[in-house]
Amino acid sequence: MSDADLVPVTITPDPVLWARVIRRERITLVGTVVVVVAIEAVANLFGTLGAIIVAHGTTIVAACYFVAVLRFRRDRLAQTLGDPSRGITVSPAGVEVPLLGLIRWEDIVAVFTVYDGARADRFTRSTGVRGFAERWTHAVGSADHYLTVALRDGPAMRRRAQPRQFRRWVKLWARSGAPDFGAIQVIGDVYYTDEDAARLDRALRAQATRRGLPSSRSANMLDQGEFFRTNSGIAGFDGRTGDK
Fold first, then answer.
1. What is the pLDDT of residue 122?
2. pLDDT tens column, 40-60
3. Packed helices 15-46 and 128-139: angle between N→C axes, nearest 10 degrees
4. What is the pTM of this model?
5. Of 92, 105, 174, 234, which is most buried with the most CB atoms under 10 A?
């Protein structure tokens, strides 16, 4: 880290990437319904057991994919409030996101960034139908780069969320004898350029390190769970809580 990484950084979605995400979301959500209806109609037309089994199996897979894309869309709206001009800022004052406003450093207990470069490279090299499907899924929200900010008081941060419909974007991690930790997970690619995401990543870790906060970068999403487990004060804690 250098002094340059301590300069305030603001990133906003790239217009081209943002438009691509919106377009592919719509195609996927509408197309999935159309394909399922068509397959079920053909299966009923033939009326054979094999055709019905194939159709129902396809419907189940399509439904799972449909729900996943809806989740990606929900996370995008929570992170940006649906406005690509709304930025995310890391500065000496704290971390500012559209849903919560400015989160001051005294309310932050750790930061974790994850970049799964191996997955990104695999998608780039993949060919055929599988490669197309993987790249399409990434383009609608399945990220390789995440930036997690761990919060001292998760329930309090949830109460700050405006609009309230996105408050569950603030995840809760149980803690004994104190308010639950909170965590917000910012998607660092998909609709941001790699350069902007890297600048935000460096700034986030540099500002945290300067304040003596735990800060790490990993290729494995599971690594950050160790912080919550070791600091929960709950024997045998598995790192998760129920929704509240």
1. 66
2. 888 888 878 788 888 888 889
3. 120
4. 0.84
5. 174
Class of residue 211 by CB neighbours under 10 A (exposed 0-12, middle 13-18, buried 19+): exposed
Distance CA 20, CA 31 (A): 16
Tell which residue, 70, 43, 47, has the closest CA to residue 59: 43
| Cα–Cα distance measured from residue 232 to residue 225, given in angstroms and rounded to the nearest whole number | 11
Closest CA to 7 of 153, 216, 143, 207: 207
Q: Greatest CA separation found in the chain?
A: 69
Residues near 244 by beta carbon (within 8 Å), at least 6 away in sequence: 155, 158, 172, 180
For the beta sheet containing 94-97, the strands, ordered from the edge strand earlier in sequence to the opposite edge, are: 9-11, 88-91, 94-97, 101-104
Is the separation of the CB atoms in 137 and 240 below 8 Å?
no
Confidence band, pLDDT 50/70/90 cuts, at residue 123: low
- The reported pLDDT for the residue numbered 244 is 45
**120 by DSSP, 3-state: which?**
helix
Mean pLDDT of 122-150: 78
In DSSP terms, 113 is beta-bridged to 147, 217
**Separation of first and last alpha carbons in the chain:** 38
